[in-house]
TrEMBL record:
Keyword ATP-binding appears in the UniProt entry: yes
UniProt keywords, alphabetically: ATP-binding, Chaperone, Nucleotide-binding
Keyword Zinc: no
GO molecular function terms attached to this record: ATP binding; ATP-dependent protein folding chaperone; unfolded protein binding
PANTHER family, alphabetized: MOLECULAR CHAPERONE MKKS, SYNDROMES PUTATIVE CHAPERONIN-RELATED
Any single Gene Ontology cellular-component annotation: nucleus
InterPro entries: Chaperone_TCP-1, Cpn60/GroEL/TCP-1, GroEL-like_apical_dom_sf, GROEL-like_equatorial_sf, MKKS, TCP-1-like_intermed_sf
Stated name of the protein: McKusick-Kaufman/Bardet-Biedl syndromes chaperonin
One Pfam family it belongs to: Cpn60_TCP1
Protein family membership: Belongs to the TCP-1 chaperonin family.
Lineage top rank: taxon: Eukaryota
GO biological process: chaperone-mediated protein complex assembly; cilium assembly; developmental process
């Protein structure tokens, strides 16, 4: 943490409400930051603290929010909710934050309706959306399973292409999508099993082209024991009679500091300290003898190994890796079946040892590695390459999101129509349902029709605004009344006279499916075509889960993760209601 530039002054407590122009301006500024970070056309944000320090360039919500600090309680509440969503889903943070801010700001602008009434309407509409998105009648859901490779690739590519910092062109996006899908398919077990990780270990290499990335079976662990300049070398490893290599995974320090049993600091004479150190070293050497007796071929230590212990291990012919860190430990467990050994003073049970089929020395991008492999294992290593650190950090984040999205399709093989289509569709769905159940909802919520319409419009317009954030500046947004998808049309193009084949933003609806003369411009909240009666009761068509028509090109689909979207919408709406329920925000401006 940085030190204060000025001495602390007397506390000055400030009270604000959502009607305060200063707080509303802060909410709008934060919303502008998130909205302009959304999608493949988002602006790259450059973040640096006020006293210097590293610069973070990103459009990823996890990196964006962690690089910023917030003093206003209202903003900190929203950021905390978004970060909680990211901890569970690793994606959709920009959507959750932007949608939440739109819901709050739209509610504040509805002066004719009380905040309590708006919150109650929001709760009802959120429940409607949840039920619709997870139902079989949802018309913006697309079946995604491993039998449809092109659709799966489009799903992955949609996630990868959403971050402009990654700098992915079409060829590199396709290549990386294939790698991610390959890593995912390699990690999926044939039968249901229990694992500690997602089974895809990630290694990053900077100053390399993205197309140098690759997937390898097993684990690659950095190993400077042998010089990479000499190339891959033969590695004699102790084996069992079955030709397997036994593995010991140690998670306690083997540096001789006796951290196992000396948890407190004590003062003692130098000879006493030396005597204790010698005793610990003797115990560790005895542990090495036990490893040799059990024919252990490789010792993997999370922390540091004492130099004398290293020398003794070499004499015994045991390969060792130290300073692993915490990240690879769970992957090693999944690969080898070993259990962490938390004591080198007391010999562990033999069942704690794991097994490998082979341990080889490899040189990858001028670095030495141990390549650990085991047959019928579902653990693999994704070697991710990037030209600069910022690109590599963004690639790591987005690849993790893509893998998380793929794993979610195993539970429910469904994705949502992306590119803004599901937002526009949900906005029209909400307005249609409210129109059909107007009397019932007015009675249930004890509001007038005008109040219900105003609150509903605030809710639906928030979804339209997030969809418009995905639009390139050179394009205009249009909507078809039949499927309620968003269409991106260049400025000045007459869609009715257009002869070139084109499709909606997600690619699931083409001009062969609709009459293009019925397309209407989506002008935003102030001039929304929906408020002028464009949407009628009979306009909205229930089509159910969209099938793959012949006119649809699966290579150009834009898809979003269903679970992530549902959770992001829930987070946004519930957080917005919490913000609207608080009458005063109090903080110390010192």
């Amino acid at each position: 943490m940085g030190s204060r530039q000025e001495a602390a002054q007397e506390s000055h407590i400030q009270r604000q409400t959502l009607d305060d122009p200063e707080l509303r301006a802060a909410l709008k500024a934060f919303n502008e930051l998130l909205s302009t970070s959304m999608g493949p056309h988002g602006r790259i944000q450059s973040i640096q603290n006020g006293v210097g320090g590293p610069i973070t360039m990103t459009t990823s919500s996890s990196r964006l929010l962690s690089a910023m600090s917030f003093s206003r309680p209202c903003l900190r509440l929203i950021v905390s909710s978004v970060q909680g969503h990211l901890r569970n889903h690793h994606d959709g943070g920009v959507l959750a934050g932007s949608l939440c801010l739109h819901l709050v700001l739209n509610a504040v602008e509805v002066e004719s309706v009380g905040r309590k009434c708006v919150r109650e309407v929001y709760e009802v509409l959120l429940k409607l959306i949840d039920e619709y998105l997870t139902s079989d009648d949802c018309a913006v859901s697309v079946t995604v399973d491993t039998s449809k490779v092109k659709v799966m690739l489009s799903f992955v590519r949609s996630i990868l292409a959403s971050k402009p910092v990654c700098g992915l062109r079409l060829a590199s996006a396709n290549y990386l999508a294939q790698l991610v899908l390959k890593a995912f398919l390699n990690s999926v077990p044939d039968v249901s099993s229990s694992f500690l990780t997602d089974r895809v270990f990630n290694l990053q290499f900077d100053k390399k082209d993205i197309t140098s990335s690759e997937v390898m079976e097993g684990l690659l662990l950095e190993w400077p024991e042998k010089s990479a300049a000499l190339g891959a070398q033969e590695l004699p490893v102790i084996q069992e009679s079955s030709k397997n290599v036994r593995v010991a995974l140690v998670t306690v320090s083997m540096s001789g500091d006796a951290e196992e049993f000396l948890t407190n600091q004590m003062e003692a004479q130098p000879q006493v300290v030396q005597s204790a150190a010698d005793l610990v070293l003797k115990k560790m050497l005895a542990f090495c003898d036990w490893l040799h007796e059990k024919r252990v071929g490789i010792l993997l230590c999370q922390k540091v190994i004492h130099p004398k212990v290293k020398s003794y291990l070499r004499q015994k012919g045991i390969v060792f890796v130290e300073r692993l860190g915490i990240q690879p430990v769970a992957y090693i467990q999944d690969l080898t079946g070993s259990r962490p050994i938390s004591s080198v003073i007391v010999p562990p049970p033999e069942s704690a040892l794991g097994q490998l089929n082979s341990v080889t020395h490899r040189v990858v991008h001028n670095k030495g590695f141990l390549h650990l492999q085991k047959s019928n294992s579902y653990v693999c290593t994704l070697l991710l390459c990037g030209a600069v650190d910022e690109q590599l950090a963004e690639l790591k984040s987005v690849v993790h999101s893509a893998l998380k999205g793929l794993y979610s399709t195993l539970q429910r093989p469904v994705a949502l129509c992306g590119g803004g289509c599901w937002q526009i569709h949900l906005a029209s769905y909400v307005r249609r349902v409210v129109l059909e159940r107007e009397d019932e909802l007015c009675s249930q919520l004890r509001v007038t029709r005008a109040q219900l319409a105003a609150a509903t419009n605030a809710f639906a317009s928030s979804f339209e605004s997030t969809a418009l954030s995905l639009l390139s500046p050179s394009l205009r947004a249009w909507v078809d009344p039949q499927h309620c998808h968003m269409w991106h049309v260049p400025e000045g193009v007459d869609v009715a006279a257009e002869t070139t084949a084109f499709s909606c933003a997600c690619g699931m609806v083409t001009d062969a499916d609709i009459d293009t003369s019925t397309l209407q411009p989506l002008l935003g909240r102030e001039n929304s075509v929906w408020r002028d009666g464009f949407l009628k009761r009979d306009d909205f068509v229930k089509t159910g889960c969209l099938g793959m028509k012949e006119s649809v090109n699966p290579d150009w689909l834009v898809l979003d993760t269903l679970d992530c979207v549902v959770a992001a919408v829930q987070t946004a709406a519930m957080t917005a209601n919490t913000v609207l329920s608080i009458t005063q925000y109090i903080h110390d401006v010192n």
